[in-house]
């Protein structure tokens, strides 16, 4: 028995249940370690070439004007070659593809997508495109975790949670913010908060952070000064900051969605246009190149002049969403933080001009702008607020941060009716990621958790003694076979019992001909979720499914009544 409990098959079957916490914790740990190692590799792939060429990963400002223009163009040319060699590549990477795989493919992400995302995002970042590395990092973490589940042939309900673990681990490793990674995964990726789901996601985020710290050390993403709000009289100014950030977030989303309409253009035209636009803007404002963390740190310390801030805001707000909409395979989280920091710095400077009182440090407003912009664009207010707290290590940020984040989200959601940029992008492609409550509940468990294992397989021709022996085992189902030993149909033991109660029982008994209700054999893998099972029943207008193992053997029977009872009585919220 102990050996059975340690087997991989037992591990798989336990994961079919929603409450398989020990097994989920093991998966979270494996996901975190693997994602952490992948994030180290991704970060080195981006930073080592830039350090060699520039002396510092973010020092694009040291390049000449010609280099500012030519680097993004060269990067676009390389991406064009990659995408022409891999024609289907455009639809295999990015956060939108991640949500599509979750919604329509049960979280199954091909290994080639991981490789393509790694290579293409590295090219885009090293060549100075105005994009972020967090989006690709999330995709890489999710794909790595999904591949882990696929290689172990785990149930699909655990694949979905594994993707949440990978996303949390990636955010944690990118910013050294494990809690923000957990909240982001639950709020943006999984779109639900569950007690069972939290634990493996937390384990993944913490283990990835430990891997990153152990290999590369603990380096804060931003150099953040200590600050706190000076007086409650600044609250109206913070509220106005939230409104302005919300307006800029809406402009960001609309620009990106408009650029999506150019998706029918040849990839070569789109990427070359992105490179030329980025290069032209970088001649005037080289700070927009790359992830721009050094510029964010400068903004947090209040070292940027107003004229430069205004120019950077205009350039970044126009260029980044447009080139992302054109298909450059990189992320938008970093750019939203950049834009938010610039807006906040502008507010900090202007606030000091029009007030006689001592206004809080510019860095406070820059940080508030970062959180508000991230929360508004991603529709993730709690993740943004937690990120603020972890990045600053300062509880004084919570009160003004809540105000700025909530108001920016309200502005985007209720004045412009925009969901997160990821969902908006999916909808622009005619897809949807939202699930009804019943779909969410039934996606948390696999069919193996409910299937009835009480069945017996027999030939369709049997004698009286065999029939009585068959019923003596008190099975719930009888699986009938033809001479070729292939399953033909299902029947209920009660029908056979009724037949045996008759006076005349000619032998042999043909179970395919006696009066009984028989059901055709329709199979479904034990890896499928209950929601997949319900969908298949509805599509084929049936009420029973035979659940098969990885080897194709029938393991049990699942009925519509079992699924309905689970949803109405036993689901865990």
Description:
With 573 residues, the chain is α/β, with parallel strands linked by helices. The protein has 24 helices and nine strands. The chain has helices spanning 2-5, 8-15, 21-54, 65-85, 94-104, 111-126, 134-151, 156-175, 178-189, 195-216, 235-260, 267-284, 293-300, 306-325, 333-353, 362-378, 381-392, 398-415, 421-428, 437-442, 464-472, 493-500, 530-540, 560-570, and strands spanning 455-459, 461-462, 477-481, 487-491, 509-510, 518-520, 523-525, 544-548, 554-559. A four-stranded mixed beta sheet has the order 1-3-4-6. A three-stranded mixed beta sheet has the order 7-8-9. Strands 2-5 form a two-stranded antiparallel ribbon. Helix 23 links the parallel strand 7 and strand 8 (544-548). Helix 3 runs parallel beside helix 6. The longest helix has 34 residues, at 21-54. The radius of gyration is 28 Å and the shape is elongated. The protein starts with a helix and ends with a helix.
Number of helix segments? 24
Helicity, as a percent range? 55-70%
Hey, roughly how much beta strand do the residues contain? 5-15%
* Low-confidence runs: none
What's the average pLDDT?
Answer: 87
Radius of gyration from the alpha-carbon trace, in angstroms: 28 Å
List the helices and strands and how they pair.
Blueprint: H1 2-5, H2 8-15, H3 21-54, H4 65-85, H5 94-104, H6 111-126, H7 134-151, H8 156-175, H9 178-189, H10 195-216, H11 235-260, H12 267-284, H13 293-300, H14 306-325, H15 333-353, H16 362-378, H17 381-392, H18 398-415, H19 421-428, H20 437-442, E1 455-459, E2 461-462, H21 464-472, E3 477-481, E4 487-491, H22 493-500, E5 509-510, E6 518-520, E7 523-525, H23 530-540, E8 544-548, E9 554-559, H24 560-570
Parallel strand pairs: 1-3, 7-8
Antiparallel strand pairs: 2-5, 3-4, 4-6, 8-9
Helix pairs in contact: 3-6, 3-7, 3-8, 3-10, 4-6, 4-12, 5-19, 6-7, 7-8, 8-9, 8-10, 9-10, 9-17, 11-14, 11-15, 11-16, 11-18, 11-19, 12-14, 13-15, 14-15, 15-16, 16-17, 16-18, 17-18, 21-22
